[in-house]
Design brief:
142 residues; mainly alpha; Four Helix Bundle (Hemerythrin (Met), subunit A)
Length: 142
């Protein structure tokens, strides 16, 4: 089932929300390729773009955290990003012989991880930025 962007996923930080939408588009592209039986192609073409974009997105969030969040939140948030990258590589490596199985496992993981990460960790970051750091964020993007 394709992911759908909705109001509940909004963090209130425009740049982050736009990047989350793009991540959802890429996950959906992987899903569509799977539904059309193009699993090997999806692993070769879609997954590298998705993982590269995820790394770009993580760097964006981590830049926002440099001056804004507590060290506890920052460490936890960055740890989640690193675990995500390791898990994607692990799934790719373990199931690399069977593209269909790999794509199914990746989709299950990606969908669950992204929604949970947005709803908890990213919203916590956004809350901090919106209540305490708006001026700093605005200056970074001016």
């Amino acid at each position: 089932m394709l992911l759908t962007w909705n109001y509940s996923l909004e963090t209130g930080i425009r740049q982050i929300d736009q990047q989350h939408r793009k991540l959802i588009e890429l996950i959906n592209e992987l899903e569509i390729a799977h539904e059309n039986g193009r699993n090997a192609e999806a692993l070769k073409n879609v997954l590298p773009r998705l993982t590269a974009y995820a790394q770009f997105h993580f760097k964006t969030e981590e830049r926002l955290m440099e001056h804004l969040t507590s060290s506890t939140h920052k460490a936890h948030h960055i740890s989640e990003h690193r675990k995500f990258a390791k898990e994607v590589i692990l799934i790719e490596t373990v199931d690399c012989v069977e593209p269909t199985k790999t794509v199914v496992r990746l989709l299950d993981y990606l969908k669950s991880w992204l929604v949970n990460h947005i709803m908890k960790t990213d919203k916590e970051l956004a809350g901090y930025i919106l209540t305490r750091g708006r001026r700093i964020v605005d200056k970074q993007h001016s």
